[in-house]
Design brief:
By secondary structure, this protein is mostly helical. The chain folds into two domains: 36 residues; 113 residues, no CATH class. Helix content is 85%, strand content 0%. The longest helix has 49 residues.
Length: 193
């Protein structure tokens, strides 16, 4: 029996040590599980916040699409005016040729019409470049504002794309040489027979 009483304290120490180790392992496992839960929750939050940039980029795509469609429409109308202007110029030159009394009169009229036609073409080319430049400016402002928004900064553009579009549509139409040339082309003085 003596032998048994001496072994009990040894077993008790081992059991206490195992119990302490088990408690420490259990605490570490619980800490690891809690840490994993927190990390997973934070990852879910970060993932959810990623929807905002997706929406921002989607809005940018829609706005860019609007700018390109609006600019293409303006360019199409401007090109139509260009072709109509060329038809008017050719018709005016033919009419002037038909009304010319002699070769000298024909040459003088054609020489007089040349600068007007050239000015009209140059004006229409400037108009087309203005449309493209305006679209480029709108696109640059949209991209700049979107990048600022994605970085979390407050966008402070000089003009928004909508403001630029509104200003462009409200701007008075520039007087082009085309209208003046058409009047000159068709308004030839009557000749005395």
């Amino acid at each position: 029996m003596l032998h048994c009483t001496k072994e009990i304290p040894m077993n008790l120490q081992i059991e206490n040590s195992i119990s302490e180790i088990t408690d420490k392992v259990r605490d570490r496992v619980e800490d690891a599980i809690n840490s994993a839960r927190q990390s997973t929750d934070q990852a879910a939050g970060r993932l959810t916040r990623r929807k905002k940039p997706v929406r921002t980029i989607s809005r940018l795509g829609l706005k860019l699409s609007s700018v390109t469609h609006r600019s293409a429409n303006k360019l199409w109308k401007q090109q139509t005016k260009l072709v109509e202007g060329q038809i008017d110029a050719v018709a005016g030159r033919l009419k002037a040729a038909a009304e010319a009394g002699d070769l000298r009169d024909l040459v003088q009229t054609q020489v007089r019409l040349f600068p007007e036609n050239t000015a009209r073409i140059a004006g229409q080319a400037r108009e087309a470049l203005g449309i493209v430049k305006g679209a480029g400016g709108e696109i640059a402002e949209l991209v700049k504002g979107t990048l600022a928004e994605l970085k979390g900064q407050k966008a402070n553009p000089k003009k928004t794309a909508e403001d630029a579009h509104t200003a462009a549509t409200k701007a008075p139409a520039a007087k082009t040489p085309m209208a003046e040339a058409t009047v000159v082309d068709t308004a030839q003085p009557e000749r005395a027979a």
